[in-house]
DNA sequence: TGGGGTTAT
DNA sequence: ATAACCC
């Protein structure tokens, strides 16, 4: 806006990655402060999905089985974390708090946020240039202990970024009681990689001269965010094991193996280059609820599970205020070999007469939805044949704002408030 | 390996 | 609808 494209793309960004420490465990310690100084794990089914640092000292790791965790640490206290409601709510409080500083906040999972603070940095830089020099230095760590050159405006911008990151962490602690790490760098990839270098409750800034060192410190390519399990397997088959290998690998061969789009993107990642913007997440694109279990093998059981999942979901949608236009059922069938990844799903539009009822209290939207979901189920499973499910998931998506006659502003602020009583038709 | 999320094809 | 990615 007002700036030529060339000047805008040449401008250096400042991005912060905020990563809360053992998030679920922290939320549980706030809910019950007596757990504070004890080894604590959060359990889902027979897995300890995360744990506090008292437990980590004693050898408990993320995603460890309950059996192994208890062996490592017999005093381990476990709380059930299968209901994500408290974590989800706290997570959005963090995102909203960051949104008070700056509009460009992108969520990643429940415990991470990217914030593009380029504009805030520019503002402070100008204040500095007008008001003379500031004595304040970097906040937190500098990756590699690299020396800062205050004559280099890129360094100065990142130093200001580190001060803002410190303010983020202070606000998150003061207002929500949560601790976390932050990484400051010139793009999302680097901010995320550098945020993990000093681990609980600390922050690190990366200066451009240390970028290659950071990338070379990644001993395995799967540590590069954006290079996942599948791509790693294919890269390994090509003899590519770390970021250096990927940098040096012939582009043309890579493009033929992985396709131009993936090849070009991940090869740039291997140099620490990432021009993907911080995209404000806004409200969620979907609401889902799932449950896994040992066995579900009859239509009646499936219906019961669906009836268990629906009320919670409908409540969440109701509180959000938007109306979903699509519903999806996902199942996982038992398989002794790859337990991971044999999910299938069917989705369909929600009939318009049902959509209208989503906002209204006390209208029975449950039973028609159960009927729709059972139809979707029968599209995947022949109920006359034996079956063995280990997971059911329901997802509402394609969320649309309510049709509002009062254009925009009024409707937005009104939906936050409790509706006036006795106004029903 | 849980219970969520996102985007690309 | 699936496949990939993220936590």
TrEMBL record:
Annotated ranges, domain UmuC: 15-228
Which residue ranges run through the membrane? none
Picking any one GO biological process from the record gives: translesion synthesis
Which SUPFAM superfamilies does the record match to this protein? DNA/RNA polymerases (SSF56672), Lesion bypass DNA polymerase (Y-family), little finger domain (SSF100879)
Pfam families xrefs: IMS, IMS_C, IMS_HHH_1
A GO molecular function annotation here is:
damaged DNA binding
Record keyword Magnesium present: no
Keyword Glycosyltransferase listed: no
Q: Which keywords describe this protein according to UniProt?
A: DNA synthesis
Belongs to which family? Belongs to the DNA polymerase type-Y family.
Q: Can you say what this protein is called? A: POLI polymerase
Q: Which species expresses this protein natively? A: Anhinga anhinga
């Amino acid at each position: 806006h007002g700036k030529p494209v060339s000047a805008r793309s040449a401008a250096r960004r400042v991005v912060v990655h905020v990563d809360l420490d053992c998030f679920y465990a922290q939320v549980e310690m706030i809910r019950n402060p007596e757990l504070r100084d004890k080894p604590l794990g959060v359990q889902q089914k027979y897995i300890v999905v995360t744990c506090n640092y008292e437990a980590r000292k004693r050898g408990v790791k993320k995603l460890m089985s309950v059996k192994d965790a208890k062996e490592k640490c017999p005093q381990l206290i476990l709380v059930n974390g299968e209901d994500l409601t408290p974590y989800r709510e706290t997570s959005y409080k963090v995102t909203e708090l960051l949104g008070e500083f700056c509009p460009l906040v992108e969520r990643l999972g429940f415990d991470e946020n990217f914030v593009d603070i380029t504009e805030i940095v520019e503002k402070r830089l100008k204040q500095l240039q007008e008001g003379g020099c500031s004595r304040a230095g970097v906040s937190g760590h500098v990756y590699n202990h690299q020396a800062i050159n205050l004559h280099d405006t890129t360094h100065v911008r990142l130093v200001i970024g580190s001060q803002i990151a410190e303010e983020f962490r202070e606000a998150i602690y003061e207002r929500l009681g949560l601790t976390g790490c932050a990484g400051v760098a010139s793009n999302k990839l680097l901010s995320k990689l550098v945020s993990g270098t000093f681990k609980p409750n600390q922050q690190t800034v990366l200066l451009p001269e240390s970028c290659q060192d950071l990338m070379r410190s990644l001993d395995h390519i799967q540590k590069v965010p954006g290079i996942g399990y599948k791509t790693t397997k294919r890269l390994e088959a090509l003899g590519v094991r770390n970021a250096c290998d990927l940098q040096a690998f012939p582009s043309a061969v890579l493009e033929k193996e992985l396709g131009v789009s993936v090849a070009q993107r991940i090869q740039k990642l291997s140099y620490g280059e990432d021009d993907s913007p911080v995209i404000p997440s806004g409200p969620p694109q979907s609401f889902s609820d799932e449950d896994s279990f040992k066995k579900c093998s009859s239509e009646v059981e499936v219906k019961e599970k669906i009836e268990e999942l629906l009320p919670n979901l409908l409540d969440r949608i109701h509180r959000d205020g938007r109306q979903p236009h699509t519903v999806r059922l996902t199942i996982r069938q038992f398989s002794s070999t790859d337990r991971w990844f044999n999910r299938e799903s069917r989705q369909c539009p929600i009939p318009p007469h049902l959509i209208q009822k989503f906002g209204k209290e006390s209208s029975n939207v449950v039973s028609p939805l159960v009927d729709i979901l059972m139809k979707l189920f029968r599209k995947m499973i022949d109920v006359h044949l034996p079956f063995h499910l280990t997971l059911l998931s329901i997802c509402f998506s394609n969320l649309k704002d309510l049709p509002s006659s009062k254009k925009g502003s009024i409707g937005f602020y009104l939906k936050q408030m409790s509706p006036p009583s006795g106004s029903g038709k």
